[in-house]
Amino acid sequence: MTAENPKHPKNSQNTPAHSVDEDAPVVVRLSTTVDAPLATVWALHTDIGSWADWNTDIDSVDFDGPLAPGASFRWLTHGLDITSTIREVVPGERIVWGGPAHGIEGVHVWTFEENCEAATGERTVTVRTEESWAGAPIEERPEEMREALRQSLDSWLSRLRSEAERRG
Length: 168
Description:
The protein is α+β, with helices and mostly antiparallel strands. About 25% of the residues lie in helices and about 40% in strands. The chain has helices at about 40-45, 50-55, 135-140, 140-165; strands spanning about 25-35, 60, 70-75, 80-90, 95-100, 105-115, 125-135. A 7-stranded antiparallel sheet has the order 1-7-6-5-4-3-2. Helix 1 (about 40-45) crosses helix 4 (about 140-165). It is globular, with a radius of gyration of 16 Å.
């Protein structure tokens, strides 16, 4: 038996709610560098109600806030109707959400790190995303689902980078 850390409540897979499920059949990790201020990247990404305005993979989002743990949002993407609950928010650094959808338990972690080039003073942001999927639909076709998730996250990062740099 392991002791629970009160700062990291457990999800249904018995893993910290603020982390991906490392035991899930599908875990994808990707990152990109964005040539825009951290404030711009963070504001764009955490304006959940406006995702469909710049991410064409998202059909609609219903979110009234606040951007805080326990708040939920409903979104349509890739033909899936998903309700996600925000699990953690560290302003300017990290946001985590997750929940069940169509038999899949997903946990999505995003981190943002500002970088400064010593020689030029140029500032960029490294955006990292990691997501885990577990559940019967994933167990039936893990490789296919892993590739679908990888493509989805790659597209999201690309659109986030493009829009943040356009606004930057």
